[in-house]
Amino acid sequence: MYLNYFGLQTEPFSIAPDPNFLFLSERHQEALAHLSYGLQGSGGFILLTGEVGTGKTTVSRALLEQLPEQTRTAFILNPMLNETELLATLCDEFGIRYAKRNITNKRLTDKLSEFLLAAHAEGEQCVVLIDEAQHLRPQVLEQLRLLTNLETNQSKLLRVILIGQPELQDLLRRRELRQLAQRITARYHLLPLQEADTERYINYRLQVAGAQRSLFDKTALRLVHRYSGGIPRRLNLLCDRALLAAYNDQVQVVGRAQIRHAAQELELDSSATRRDSRPVGVVAATVLALLLGAVGSWWWQQTTTTPAIDAVVPVVQQQPIRNLLRAWQLPQPASDETLCDWVVAYQLGCVSGQLRFDRIRALNLPVLLQLESGDWQWIAATDTQPADNWTGGFMALFPHPPGYSLANAETYQLWLQQQLNTYVAQPSQDLAELTQAVQQQHGLPITGELDGITLAWLASHHTIIGPRLQQAEPREQY
């Protein structure tokens, strides 16, 4: 109805998955990087979770487009299957012929095994993608695990990508599925868009639809983010209704009034949407210890919580703590969960300790300062002075790079070496030497080890998402 009025060629905010409107925000790109890294590993399962409408399907489509030509894929869009139906569906998806009469799990499994071995011999990779996986029965998940037992000395013959809502993580923590949970080599929880990405998302879709000018003013863009909570599906619905309201009001640009009218029609509340994302649970401590231990405990130990961090648990309701979580667009954790364990599910690490304020600023991250009273003081990105009664204690969250949780110490240490070399004048193969040079040049405590503070600084300057002060400039290499 409003297309001609705004000079559009097609509907810019349709909720249909049109590839022409594919927009990968920074968080979608990070999810894609984690999952792509997982497919390169030797494990059998990859996990992508997120609230309804956050763009999980968008990420999975982009992932499949990146797969090499020698990849055979099977899609399971209806997870309400029993074990036999699952095996039969996989055979159908892979084009495996089997007798329809008197089928048994063993016969179907044998057929799949023969197919996977033949595909491997021809240099092909087989991938199964299961959407809405939170509805899978435990027995079906166990059947999938048994299928992934088929492997060579280097890799699994079948990779399984599980996509679902946060309840999927709860399902995988069940005791009978602990063996499957230990085979997940890459996982990512997709959070809503940040405000800057919301604006880019809206303008991108309008441009693809043929818009020659901006159709939303700045106030409207901020309200869209507030009412939608940064969830793409809500963004589409809200923007579509707002354009219709602007057409009815005969105004050329969507403003505050049209956004509020559209939100009222959709029954969206700006305060409720910010709390809508439920926190996922904590990753099992034993699994986390195994993963992190595999990448070298000698440098990771300093990133774990100090006694000061434990004080976060009883005061997690304090406004400064909520400000830190909001800076990363995280939901509120349960009161009985340790904050630094909880953020692992959101691809974040936790660092704390005693440090001078100028060195804290060098981390390029939002921080909390611990006061003499034991309370926490929020320090915004623009603050240049420490809080009154500050003891020197601080805490901060920092983003993990893609692949950080994979049990491959050699690969991850190689990544660290490559990143450190971009910040020194003289490249080196010595990790301790590189670390000390970076610490000295960038105002970090000089320890010669990749302690938590150094790793947080490195991650904050090399990851593609997260609230940061500024982008550091790598030094030229001579």
TrEMBL record:
Residue intervals of the AAA+ ATPase domain: 42-185
Matches recorded under InterPro entries: AAA+_ATPase, AAA_22, ExeA_AAA_ATPase_DNA-bind, P-loop_NTPase
Gene Ontology MF terms in the entry: ATP hydrolysis activity
Pfam families given in the database record: AAA_22
Record protein name field: General secretion pathway protein
Organism for this UniProt entry: Pseudidiomarina halophila
Organism ancestry: Bacteria, Pseudomonadati, Pseudomonadota, Gammaproteobacteria, Alteromonadales
